[in-house]
Design brief:
- By secondary structure, the chain is α/β, with parallel strands linked by helices.
- It has a domain of about 130 residues.
- It is built from seven helices and four strands.
- It has a four-stranded parallel beta sheet with strand order 2-3-1-4, sandwiched between helices.
- α5 crosses α7.
- The N and C termini lie far apart (about 95 Å).
Length: about 210
Amino acid sequence: MYRGRLCALGVLLGIYLAGVLLLSSVNLQDQYKDQNGAVSSSRQQAIELTGGGVSTRRANLNWCKPLHFIPDSDSRPVIALASFPGSGNTWLRYLLQQATGVYTGSVYKDYGLLKNGFPAESVVNGSVSVVKTHEWGPTSRQRFHRAVLLVRAPGPAILAEFNRQSGGHVGFASPERYRRNKGRYWQQFVKDKLRTWRLSNLDWLWNFTGPT
């Protein structure tokens, strides 16, 4: 009799624990789906804004003012928006377009950005407010009459550029990328980019002859 009660109690406890585990797993799955969906949604918005390579559809961005080119651009100076990669050049271009309603240009033709809010990619003249460039040296500087130099601390800028090269405009480098060749790949990347960060910023500061 006593043994039977213990067996029955054990069965009931087993059923109870199984039910708790089952309900917990269902709730966790639902919560994961909700969180994953929210992350995917926010990531999609970021991709559409910055032109990341994951999405191919055009971004539905709301602009504060209708975007336009500046008329009579032949008499206007060409203004460089110069920076080391990873310094926030594209983000500043977005803010300028929101604030002024004037397109920003670029010495590059990034098709992701071209389809997602920056139709003046590859435009280098006075019809745009500024022209994005990461280039430096005499040949690169001579195209511009004025320059805005955007400087970000080397640590965050180099990290952002490493993430961009590994995962696109809004992606991230995987842990394996940092551990590549026992970490020597990342160390060499930092060493090379730190030198480029210093030389490119100093080149625009010291050698550009127009107003900055």
